[in-house]
Structures are given as structure tokens and as C-alpha cells.
Amino acid sequence: MSMKANVKAVNGSVLREIELPAVFDEEYRPDLIKRAVLAYQSENYQPYGANPYSGMRTSAEGWGSKRGESKIPRIKNGSRGARVPQTKGGHPAHAPKALKILVEKINKKEKAKAIRSAIAATVNTELVAARGHKFEGDAAIVVEDAFEAIAKTAEVRKALIALGVGADLERAKLSRKIRAGRGKTRGRRYKQAVSVLVVTSGKFNAANNIAGVDSVQVTELNANVLAPGCAAGRLTVWTEAAVKKLGEA
Prior knowledge:
Helix 1 packs across helix 2. This protein has helices at residues 30-42, 108-121, 125-130, 153-162, 166-174, 223-226, 240-248, and strands at residues 4-8, 14-19, 141-143, 177-178, 190-191, 197-200, 214-217, 236-239. The protein has seven helices and eight strands, in the order ββαααβααββββαβα. The strands form two sheets. Strands 2-1-3-8-6-7 form a six-stranded mixed sheet. The longest helix is centred in the middle third of the chain and has 14 residues, at 108-121. By secondary structure, it is of the alpha/beta class.
């Protein structure tokens, strides 16, 4: 059964009705979506591990047996133990290895199905509402191609409000807060709620400075932007050209 959606102008008025591609009828698979998101995020992990020679740069040698002392290596001209994990400044026991493989793999067909499932979830009104988004009307929001020609952020915000997602933009704007814990000193000082995803047929940068809003080309869609935090059903605004290109893929 094919789905239909209204194409709206940038001022919010309904222009016409179009038939959505078959990908929007894909079955909902939260298990595959979670795997695809975690696999995508694992590619950004930074390898870490102990220096292989930590605690080993010492001239310590064992005293041998028959001295009533443990056989651990001891520094020369002294008696303090060194090198082994149970000594001060010794080599760490079972230290993390920098060569550990951190990237999680996922089959190509599973990844493709996860992306299709996440795309279909963007027009599921119940899933989008359950994710906490605030919007008016149906979750399937398609806007005319003139939206992609907007160059100013203020005009993009005005158009999004006319499309019925203004409450969600305000929700994301008010959610910005300082992170609790040590992470605030490690390049992630603020936490920001995720809001609207704008999917276009070409490059579109005018929405980048709106709090919580992301823009992506339809050819570069991935599970991470469609389902942040492994939760599918992100509030998404599609341009008509992006929907057509998605149907041609």
C-alpha cells in the first residue's frame, strides 16, 4: 500500500499531493537500526592504550633465591621493587592495548535495510511523537523545492515554523545546558536536544545554525542522523526533489 503526503509551500500552504516511494513502507526494525547506529559511531572511537614500555625503563634485576626476599626485580644500589605490576611505578597489569579493534562491523544488506527502516520511521506519526518531538498535523512533511534556495537562517526558521515544527525548534533551543561531570572539560561542554532533520537533494547550509537542526543530502543519509541515540522516528522535513531522488535510488 503506497503512502501519500501533501507538498507544502514555504509559507505552509498545501500545493499538491504526491505519492511517496516504496521505501517509506519499509517494516520497522529497531534492532537493525540500533546495530547500524552503533557501527557508525564506532568509527569515531579514538584508540587508546598504555605505552608498551611503561614501567620497563629500569635497570632492575632480581636478587635470586635463598635470600628470604621475594624474587621481584629490584633497582640496583637499592632494594625497592620495580618493573612488575605489583611495584610502585611498575608496568600496568592487563593494560588496554592501542591495537584493539574498536570498529563494529555490520553486513551491507543489514545496514541498507536499517537505513530504509529509519527512513520509513520518519513518516510514522506515532514513532515521531513517542520520540518527544512536537509538531502539527502529520509527520510526513514534504516542502517544495524552493526551500532549498533559501540562503538565510532567519528565513529557514520562518519556513520551518510555517511547516508546523516551530514548537520543536523552541523545545530544542531551551534544552541547551552544561553537561554534568568531567566531560564538560573535554570538548563536550554543552548538551543539546535533537530537533528537525532537513533532507535536501543538494548541498544546503542555511539551517546549520538553528539549535538542534541538522541538514543532510538525501544521498548521504545514514542511520545516525535518522535515528540519533538509536531511537528511530526523528522529525524530518523532506524537499520534493529529495523524495523523488530517493524513489529513483
